[in-house]
Write a structure and sequence with these properties.
Elements: E1 2-7, H1 16-31, E2 36-41, H2 46-55, E3 61-65, H3 73-78, H4 80-100, E4 107-112, E5 129-135, H5 153-166, H6 170-178, E6 181-184, H7 187-197, E7 202-203, E8 226-231, H8 240-248, E9 256-261, H9 267-276, E10 283-287, H10 294-299, E11 303-306, H11 315-322, E12 327-330, H12 333-340, E13 344-347, H13 353-369, H14 371-388, H15 391-399
Parallel strand pairs: 1-2, 1-4, 2-3, 4-5, 5-6, 6-7, 8-9, 8-11, 9-10, 11-12, 12-13
Helix pairs in contact: 8-13
């Protein structure tokens, strides 16, 4: 069997979307040893992916590099909207390689980037089983929290317009409906894809537990101050200033500390906020850390907070629950799935900004003051992650019926 994995983003040594591409390649190679797995990606990923293939001994994997004209590299870095245009062009080049390769592909699987609006052209292969996803992108920022956007306010409006327009484009409906299998990462995206394609779309998380996060039987001891951790970019989209407003409103006699791991355009604003509200002993900006150090951060923490205003899924969620950390986040997208499985405490977004801040602060206060609850919710998350967020589960869900 020949399987083509379209993985624009792939890297064995990174998280997020890069990890999505790699985990599929690794799993398909191990689960289907008699098949040939073709990874279709770009030059940027070549060195790391070759290293990973050799390190993990993937004998049945072939790496294929395709690229758009190098002169357009500057175009990709200018703005995220330009990056999407660059990605669309890369998908055209990728399809042309597959078409001209002369290889009879049995399964063609688009895994990244995980944007439901950009399907690529792989659906055109009528003699192969074509799979799109899981992808996200259908989620939106709650209306009451859009005031946290300053630089990105117009981009969010533009994004809303584009999303509505895509749902009406006939060419997009044809693309999406032509795939044999559709997978979305959250309910918001699933509902849009089903409506546009007029066919079933299944939901499954795009992120899974990485090799180094499996079955980590962590014990979080009762200690003070209670350590709350955030990992992510310090940017508007991640709701970092919402988090600052929340921290300021936490009222408890139990000592707690918040560590912010990451860098971004709001770093100076955060520092000014800390100084203004005298939070120097409560909040610390730790900066970027190497991916190899991430597990240590989770295991030394007591609570994981992720105030993102919108997110498809979020690698950090899975890494945190794999380390038995209870989550506090907005009740939307993938976080809503975690809420249904009682992996933490989640904040209703259908209320005013002030109400959201107060409820968010209250949820954190509750976990700061209740060690037993932290342990219970952390165990729930750990069980959920090691049952439903493994690559074994995802492989069985997506490929189970296709390889019988």
């Amino acid at each position: 069997m020949n399987i083509l994995l379209s993985a624009y983003s792939i890297n064995p040594y990174k998280g997020s979307e890069d990890a999505v591409g790699w985990n599929w390649a690794l799993t398909l190679s191990r689960k289907l040893p008699d098949s040939t797995i073709y990874i279709l990606t770009r030059t940027y990923n070549e060195i790391a992916t070759k290293k990973g293939i050799k390190e993990y001994g993937l004998q049945n994997v072939k790496l294929v590099i395709v690229e758009v004209p190098k002169a357009l590299d500057w175009f990709r870095e200018k703005h995220s909207a330009f990056h999407h245009a660059y990605y669309i062009l890369w998908q055209k080049v990728a399809y042309n390689w597959a078409k001209k390769s002369g290889i009879k592909f049995d399964i063609i699987h688009h895994v990244s980037m995980g944007n439901y609006r950009i399907c690529g052209d792989m659906y055109k292969f009528k003699n192969a089983r074509t799979i799109f996803g899981p992808v996200g992108g259908g989620q939106t920022t709650p209306a009451s929290l859009r005031s946290y956007y300053n630089k990105n306010k117009n981009y969010e409006k533009f994004r809303d317009i584009v999303s509505k327009a895509f749902s009406k484009f006939n060419f997009y409906k044809k693309q999406l409906s032509s795939f044999n299998e559709l997978y979305a990462v959250n309910d918001e995206t699933k509902n849009i894809m089903q409506q546009v394609a007029n066919k079933p779309c299944k939901k499954i998380c795009e992120i899974s537990i990485g090799e180094n996060f499996k079955a980590l039987n962590v014990t979080h001891i009762k200690k003070q101050p209670v350590e709350i951790v955030y990992l992510g970019r310090l940017i508007e989209l991640k709701g970092i200033m919402l988090l600052m407003d929340v921290i300021k409103n936490i009222k408890t006699d139990i000592p707690f500390h918040v560590s912010l791991y990451g860098k971004g355009e709001l770093e100076n604003e955060i520092k000014q906020y800390i100084k203004k509200y005298k939070l120097e002993n409560t909040v610390a900006i730790k900066g970027n850390i190497d991916y190899s150090q991430v597990i240590g951060v989770y295991q030394n923490a007591d609570i994981f907070v992720h105030p993102t205003l919108r997110d498809s899924a979020g690698t950090v969620f899975i890494e945190a629950i794999a380390n038995k950390l209870p989550i506090v986040a907005l009740d939307q997208s993938f976080a809503h799935d975690l809420s249904e499985h009682e992996c933490g405490l989640f904040v209703n977004t259908e209320q005013s900004k002030e109400e959201i801040i107060n409820e968010f602060a209250g949820k954190l206060k509750e976990l700061i003051e209740n060690y037993d609850l932290r342990v219970k919710l952390g165990q729930n998350g750990y069980d959920y992650a090691n049952t439903y967020l493994t690559m074994d589960y995802k492989f069985d869900t997506v490929y189970g019926k296709l390889i019988k």
